[in-house]
Write a structure and sequence with these properties.
- This protein has 483 residues and is of the alpha/beta class.
- It has three domains: 147 residues, Rossmann fold, CATH 3.40.50.2300; 245 residues, pyruvate-formate lyase- activating enzyme (Alpha-Beta Horseshoe), CATH 3.80.30.20; 59 residues, Beta Barrel (OB fold (Dihydrolipoamide Acetyltransferase, E2P)).
- 36% of the residues lie in helices and 22% in strands.
- It contains 16 helices and 21 strands.
- The strands form six sheets. The chain has a six-stranded parallel sheet with strand order 2-1-3-4-5-6, with helices on both faces. The chain has a five-stranded mixed beta barrel with strand order 17-18-19-21-20.
- Helix 11 runs parallel beside helix 13 and helix 14 packs parallel to helix 16.
- The longest helix is centred in the last third of the chain and has 25 residues.
- The radius of gyration is 23 Å and the shape is globular.
- The two termini are 24 Å apart.
- The relative contact order is 0.09.
- It binds S-adenosyl-L-homocysteine and FE3-S4 cluster.
- S-adenosyl-L-homocysteine binds next to strand 15.
Length: 483
């Protein structure tokens, strides 16, 4: 009976996971803004609070506790959260007893100030303080405000098994590092997420095993800077130089971690994000070439194509070094897809610098991109020492030029796939048609095709017949060997 229900749900492409603990009475509404790391952190938070009697709900009106996991990366991201808090305020008319907490980067950045600025907020918890939530929630339940924004040297939540939220039951995130030591001058992350530390490979493997047991098919290893992963027994990355000789000799780097994961779980498909060009080594690319279950896709943000701007941003590589890295990547894995992050209108950016960015894009021809106008963030070196001197209208125009060029390149890349047969993991029903599945190929491009006999979570070979700049359209020709 259960088997039939599962097959029926798989046909419909429904989420299979509703991880709720029987007997839990309190209701938690949790939502996340910003990066994938925040999504994964919310799953960790849900797991910690499940032990305190909370199950998650999708209904704000029913919630005893509302948590919003926030993003500070650009001013707009913060404004979105503030609007959301105003909306919670309205819900309080219907649900006056609900408590509201803010988690994540805005909590860390604003600290107790949040309580004054937004009256609706009862609880402020930074990214390294989630283990303290049981105490903090108790405080709040007894009518007091609570704040913990202490950053940690070694917290990785390695032993917390995340409750999968809104999951399709097919792909999941597994965090491998926290924090960032890179100090790009525009970026608030090192201040809100603290120093870089890596998670014990043993606990990473255990989490992937759990996912495998639950029938997940794809894992994305997450970190602000995954290539910088280094396990030597725990502690900050920057303290590695003082580690014992034994710790140094047995340390595990990212290429090794990737190799271990792909070898241990040959049927699981692996992705990772994000790579920083300055920390990426060719070992990683060789490991990718060696394993068919590591997707041939790297998110490799460069931010700008101008040496002057890269230097002002404190990115530790030149335009030439980046292009050299790209050459090597394409040489080792010719079918590799690359994507970028770009910032338009950073302090001091001239038309010539902007042109360098467009030239660089023409050289690499990225498959995708995430493109932003520069937004000054309080506390960063750029905010303190540099002038945000590119007028908004010019930032917008340059951003638009970058976006248009990316669209051309995306179409160029999807057209390259026409006529090819590619392995696709089915992740859900297509947004546009109930009769079609959607999934992604190894290069991370979305592929849509008629459902036929196939089920959610199947690995299918799909022949690509048509495309837009973002989507491949095709027809399944059978199960792939991975199925
Ligand atoms: N290491 C993380 C960086 C997170 S920030 C990662 O690589 O994913 C994600 C992207 O946001 C950055 O790559 C950058 O392009 C953009 N970004 C960060 N700070 C910004 C700012 N102050 N203004 C505009 N965009 C910014
Ligand atoms: Fe931010 Fe640069 Fe780290 S963009 S997250 S400081 S690599």
């Amino acid at each position: 009976m259960r088997e039939e229900k599962v097959i029926e749900e798989k046909k419909q492409g429904k989420a299979l996971l509703t991880e709720q603990l029987v007997g839990n009475k309190k209701k938690l509404f949790i939502e996340s803004y910003g990066c994938q790391m925040n999504m994964n952190d919310s799953e960790i938070v849900a797991s910690i609070l499940a032990k305190e009697g909370f199950n998650t709900t999708q209904q704000l009106e029913d919630a005893d506790l509302v948590l919003v996991n926030t993003c500070s990366i650009r001013d707009k991201a913060e404004q979105t959260v503030r609007k959301r808090l105003q909306y919670y305020n309205k819900i309080k008319d219907i649900n006056p007893d609900m408590k509201v907490g803010v988690l994540g980067c805005m909590a860390e950045r604003l600290k107790a100030k949040f309580l004054e600025e937004e009256k609706i907020v009862d609880l402020v918890v930074g990214p390294d303080a989630y283990r303290d939530l049981p105490n903090l929630v108790q405080e709040v339940e007894s009518g007091r405000d609570a704040v913990n924004v202490i950053l940690s040297k070694d917290e990785t939540y390695g032993d917390v098994s995340p409750v999968r939220l809104n999951s399709n039951g097919v792909s999941a995130f597994v965090s491998i590092t926290r924090g960032c030591d890179n100090m790009c001058t525009f970026c608030v992350v090192p201040f809100t997420r603290g120093r870089e530390r890596s998670r014990d490979p043993k606990s990473i493997i255990e989490e992937i095993q759990e996912l495998k047991d639950k029938n997940f098919k794809e894992v994305t290893l997450l970190g602000q800077n995954v290539d910088s992963y280094l396990w030597y027994g725990g502690g900050l990355k920057k303290d590695f130089k003082n580690a014992s000789e034994i710790a140094k000799a047995t340390a595990v780097n990212f290429a090794q971690l990737l190799d271990i994961c792909a070898t241990e779980f040959p049927k699981m498909r692996f992705r990772f994000s994000t790579s920083n060009p300055q920390d990426m080594t060719l070992d990683v690319i060789h490991v990718m070439a060696k394993h068919r279950n590591i997707c041939k896709y790297i998110h490799l943000p460069v931010q700008s194509g101008s040496n002057k701007i890269l230097k002002a941003m404190n990115r530790q590589h030149t335009r030439e070094e980046y292009m050299e890295l790209v050459n090597s990547i394409y040489k080792i894995v010719p079918e590799m897809a690359l994507s970028q992050d770009m910032i338009a209108g950073f302090c001091g950016e001239s038309e010539e610098d902007h042109q360098d960015t467009l030239d660089m894009m023409n050289y690499v021809k990225y498959s995708f991109g995430f493109m932003f106008a520069y937004s000054e963030r309080p506390g960063t070196l750029a905010a303190k020492k540099m002038e945000d001197d590119v007028p908004e209208a010019i930032k917008k125009r340059r951003l638009q030029e970058i976006i248009s060029l990316q669209q051309e390149h995306s179409l160029f890349r999807t057209k390259e796939q026409l006529g090819k047969t590619q392995e696709v993991l089915i992740e859900g029903t297509s947004k546009k048609s109930d009769a079609h599945w959607k999934g992604r190929n190894t290069q991370n491009t979305v592929v849509v095709f008629p459902k036929e006999k196939y089920l959610l979570g199947d690995f299918v070979n799909v022949k690509v017949e048509d495309c837009t700049s973002t989507t491949l359209i095709g027809k399944a020709v059978g199960y792939s060997e991975n199925n």
